[in-house]
Design brief:
Layout: H1 9-16, H2 20-27, H3 40-50, E1 59-62, H4 70-76, E2 81-85, H5 88-97, E3 102-105, E4 117-122, H6 134-144, E5 145-156, H7 164-182, H8 196-206, E6 209-214, E7 228-234
Parallel strand pairs: 1-2, 1-4, 2-3, 4-5
Antiparallel strand pairs: 5-7, 6-7
Organism: Lipingzhangella halophila
Protein name: SAM-dependent methyltransferase
GO molecular function: methyltransferase activity
């Protein structure tokens, strides 16, 4: 799973026993050599789904990490592009890879923007927020978008209970809950706490109009449904 340039087991253990912020600061120099980086196939499929909805003006990558999302965000946007994250280490890597973009260090649960962007995207970040924290995250993205702006992020289909992946993800979440119960500071990263129906409800409560688009290029499940979909949350031109 890890290349020779990736973190060692000892480095991963140190990161896992840190806070989320400090853990990612430690992991940042080697993050792009781990399976945690957003795959190029997911970025490409998301860009393909968004392209017919554009072109867009300014764009924002929420929880940008080392900046992988900029590869798809920049070609979609005619205005300035920016990334926001709370890890200084991850932002340093992003800035080195994409010096032309703006990089902002902030807690995304209190985004420091108001009606500044036409498009916001996020990749692989929802598991870092407890369900009770999602309303603040989504409210901040809503404020950051101009009227008519779009918030988009991919989400995987739920794994069937007969799947090995389901039990692997459940086991990871249970291990993380035990870790956070006995060790502080907590490291919040869960895979099964953000099902589509709950995310849709929170987005709707924040004021978005929510649809989804299949990412067919990423494959289908046995029942023919897509493995991944792109959530499209639109800020209305006028409040409902």
């Amino acid at each position: 799973m890890f290349s020779s340039q990736g973190p060692s087991l000892r480095e991963l253990a140190t990161q896992a026993l840190s806070s989320v912020e400090h853990g990612y600061d430690l992991l940042a120099p080697k993050f792009d050599h781990t399976p945690f980086r957003t795959p190029d196939s997911l970025l490409a499929a998301s860009a393909d789904a968004l392209r017919p909805l554009g072109p867009f003006g300014p764009g924002l990558d929420v929880c940008c990490g080392t900046g992988a999302g900029m590869r798809m965000l920049e070609p979609l946007c005619r205005g300035r592009v920016a990334g926001v994250d709370f890890s200084a280490g991850m932002l340093a890597q992003a800035r080195g890879a994409h010096p032309e973009a703006a990089w902002v260090r902030a807690d995304v649960r209190a985004l420091p923007f108001a009606e500044a962007f036409d498009l916001a995207v996020s990749f692989g970040s929802l598991g870092h927020f407890l369900p009770a924290e999602r309303p603040a995250l989504f409210a901040g993205v809503y404020r950051a978008l101009r009227p008519g702006g779009l918030f988009a992020f991919p989400i995987g289909a739920p794994q069937p209970i007969t799947s090995g992946w389901y039990w692997a993800l459940l086991g990871f979440d249970m291990a993380m809950r035990v870790r956070n119960a006995v060790w502080h500071p907590p490291f919040v990263m869960y895979y099964l706490t953000c099902p589509l129906h709950a995310v849709r409800d929170d987005l709707t409560a924040a004021g978005f109009r929510v649809t989804t688009a299949p990412l067919a290029a990423l494959g289908q499940r046995e029942d023919g449904s897509p493995q991944f979909g792109l959530v499209l949350a639109r800020r209305p031109e006028r409040p409902d």
